[in-house]
Amino acid sequence: MSGADNVVWLGTPAFPEAARTALADTRLRANLRRATGTIRDKRLAVAAELDDWEELRDTAAAVKRRTLRHLDHHLLRLEETVTAAGGTVHWAADAAEANAIVTRLVKATGESEVVKVKSMATQEIGLNEALAEAGIRAYETDLAELIVQLAEDRPSHILVPAIHRGRSEIREIFRREMGEWGRPAPEDLTDEPRDLAEAARLHLREKFLRAKVAVSGANFAAADTGTVVVVESEGNGRMCLTLPETLITVMGIEKVLPSFADLDVFLQLLPRSSTGERMNPYTSLWTGVTEGDGPQNFHLVLLDNGRTATLADEVGRQALSCIRCSACLNVCPVYERTGGHAYGSVYPGPIGAVLTPQLVGVKNAASLPFASTLCGACYDACPVKINIPEVLVHLRAEAVEAKRRDRLLPTTEALVMKAAGAVLGSPRRLAAVQRLAALGARLVARDGRIGALPGPVARWSGTRDTPAPARESLRAWWRRTRTPTSEDARTTAEGKVRR
Amino acid sequence: MRIALFITCFNDTMFPRTGRAVTELLERLGHTVEFPQAQTCCGQMHFNTGYRPETLPMVRRFAEVFAGYDAVVAPSGSCAGMVRDHHRVVAAQYGDDSLAAAVEQVVPTVYELSELLVDVLGVTDVGACFPHRVTYHPTCHSLRMLRVGDRPLKLLRAVKGIDLVELPAAESCCGFGGTFALKNADVSNAMLADKMRHVLDTGAEYLCAGDNSCLTHIGGGLSRLRTGVGTMHLAEILASTEGDVR
Fold first, then answer.
1. Interface contact flag, B175 A393, Cβ < 8 Å
2. Fewest CB atoms within 10 Å of the CB: A43, A111, A438, A496?
3. Which of A374, A457, A463 faces B182 most closely, judged by CB atoms?
4. What's the pTM?
5. Binding-face residues of B in 176-235 toward A, CB within 8 A
């Protein structure tokens, strides 16, 4: 599997079909509803504690937007400061290049296994698979990520990758798979969270103490000091970032912040938005290398992989402000019912629906911008104020345009839209269609309601009655009952405005 | 005040009674209502489905037809939202300077019904009477695009005889979403099922909202299940008086 195939999982059907499969899984829906509901409530409660929450959001949005406008400058500055602190910076244009760099770096250490801190960037490029091809085993150490890896599953949520799994499933996975990877799960493992966590802890401790190389992502990097930041909840990240001799961090280029002081804002917003905590349990910051303390070799791989292309889109680029908190997933009514797999990408939910098509080209994820009702809950929840509905409709237009360019004949939808446009472009034609609709409705409606219908609206009419069009439209009623005003005369039914 | 009624193409065709209710209500409050016959559609369906250039004639028509009124009222949060949030975008992308200027002129005069009543006309008690158990669904576009807040509830609370009950998980989307209900019918149905369950939990006789499109979706489901719960646009409840108690 090449890296780009990981942003969009090949073989996943378009969203509507994948969603149908997910919806049929009642256990999945129950797990999702419970998990997203819990995080949602916690987030609201801790956000409400801060009087300046809205100001923080505005500041964060402004910092991110401004940084993106001068991204080249901040990245060069970051390279400078990281290098000065004893680290090495590598630039990767795409997934293949990033994977090749990391593989080469690991091989140079002579090691054949690495421990990993949960990282969206390495998931995006399919690093674990690339390392496996080179004979290097990568061990995920985040609990949820471990569950996904052991089950040979795919993550379903940005922050809680195993959100779709119940604890009895997790017990089964641990019992079945842990022995294959290292210390097996105890014989008498129950599905109590405490027992499950203890089994994972013992299993992982062996890895931490043995590993000479660690791979991480980064939540932020400060350009002025060269400091890289990882926030996490379990301490596994702290282990990986301090114990091994070599640390390789793969970071999307959009994660850079101009200055260390900017962390003030983001470290308040991120934990509250993601886990509903005031502060995450572990915040690790490191600047290059320090003799006798922590990793003695530090490599920072700066990953593009579609990001500069995204940056070129003035409306779409705001998606690069994302700090991967997943607040938008937890409030999205569509995500809540389908889970992440239906999006067919490492980036699911509302942010995935705007980020994925931009990273891989909208043609390659054309159903995702339509996987939303545009209800706007995601925009309200986003700590950096990404206007996700705005980007969604922007990308919908691009998806339609791409189809127009690539096809000899227009789609049925395009023909319907064209016809509708012609009708709605003229009040006279609209009035004529209204008369026809009223007539047709009288033939098929019963008690003013229309039941099952054939054709493209069959899926609608399978579960809902449709009200019949009115016998007399409002415009017809108005003309019949009202004396024409001067205004009616000014704007005639023909639609020409007489001045 | 001289107010133009932007009925929206959907209401015009399917729910003229909502337009009649708005007219009755505003005239009862002493205002002049005009219905420019040249109006058609705000272009929301085309815009939100990705057919953006096709919305240009509708944006142009809207700016021409509704120029010069004290206020333009739409009994639809999503159509008012389309005009307010997106007409500028279309004008800037495909139109010329004169269109952009025309849109700039008209957009600030466009209000959703509850905004017009509370903010512009300064009334919350419109003298309505509706002695029924009612629950209110704040549609997503009213709630999050227009930020109408509790204006509709203020209006409803002042209605004589009404038994207004809170809808659980009121702020969750009903799953309509325009063409979403066709393109992603299964997800839409799953969302609808939850919304209907919440409506039924209230024991209300009527579900009220400021958008007939959402009501068509939810009401269509309630009707198919023969729940007996009716749907009613906010305007129709506000237009009801003691004379027409049902």
1. no
2. A496
3. A457
4. 0.94
5. 176-192, 216-217, 219-221, 223-224
- The pLDDT mean for chain B works out to 97
Question: Where exactly does CATH 3.40.50.10420 map onto chain A?
Answer: 3-308
Sequence-separated (6 or more) residues with CB below 8 Å from residue B34: A485, A487, A488, B2, B3, B4, B5, B69
Q: Residue A2: its pLDDT value, please? A: 41
Judged by phi (left if over 0) then psi (alpha if -120 to 50, else beta), residue A406 lies in alpha
Answer yes or no: do A373 and B177 touch at CB < 8 A. Answer: yes
For residue A488, the model assigns a pLDDT of 54
Q: Provide the residue ranges of all domains of chain B, joining segments of one domain with +.
A: 2-120, 133-239
Confidence of residue B50 (pLDDT cuts 50, 70, 90): very high
DSSP track, A318-385: GGGG-----HHHHH-HHHHHH-SGGGTBSS-HHHHHHHHHHHH-GGGGTTGGGS-----HHHHH-TT-
Instruction: Tell me the percentage of chain B whose pLDDT exceeds 90.
Output: 98
What residues of chain B lie within 8 A of the CB of A388, using their CB? none
Query: Alpha-carbon distance B205 to B246, whole Å?
Result: 12
Tens digit of each residue's pLDDT (9 = 90 or more) over B151-179: 999 999 999 999 999 999 999 999 999 99
* CATH assignment, A3-308: 3.40.50.10420
- Report the candidate in B231, B228, B229, B225 with the shortest Cα–Cα distance to residue B193: B225
User: Cβ A482–B15 below 8 Å, yes or no?
Assistant: no
Q: Describe the crossing of helices A349-360 and A388-406 by its angle, rounded to 10 degrees.
A: 40
Q: 10-residue block means of pLDDT along chain A (499 residues)? A: 65 93 92 92 96 98 98 98 98 98 98 97 97 97 96 93 91 96 95 95 96 98 98 96 98 98 98 96 97 96 97 97 97 96 96 97 95 98 98 97 90 92 94 91 82 79 90 95 65 47
Query: What is the pLDDT, as a whole number, of residue A486?
Result: 56
- Give A389 to chain B, closest Cα distance, Å: 10
Q: In this model, does residue B83 exceed pLDDT 80?
A: yes
Q: A113 and A211 in contact (C-beta within 8 Å)? A: yes
Chain A residues near residue B144 by CB distance under 8 angstroms: 375-377, 379-380
Instruction: For residue A238, give the 3-state DSSP assignment.
Output: helix
Give me B121's structure tokens: 């006309």
Is there a shared CATH topology between the B2-120 domain and the B133-239 domain?
yes
Output the CA torsion A360→A361→A363→A368 (10° steps).
Answer: 70
Q: Which H helix or E strand runs over A291?
A: none
Interface pTM, i.e. ipTM: 0.96
**A70 CB within 8 Å of a chain B CB:** no
Q: What distance in Å separates the CA atoms of residue B62 and residue A485, rounded to the nearest whole number?
A: 19
Pick the CATH number of B133-239 from 1.10.3470, 3.40.50, 2.60.40, 1.10.10: 3.40.50
Closest CA to B199 of B168, B220, B177, B225: B168
Q: Verify whether the Cβ–Cβ distance B180 to A374 is below 8 Å.
A: yes
Q: How far apart are CA B32 and CA B22, in angstroms?
A: 11
Q: Tokens in use for A397? A: 């237009």
Beta bridge partners of A113: A137
CB B75 within 8 A of CB B44: no
CB B4 within 8 Å of CB B69: yes
**Structure tokens, A236:** 């596994």
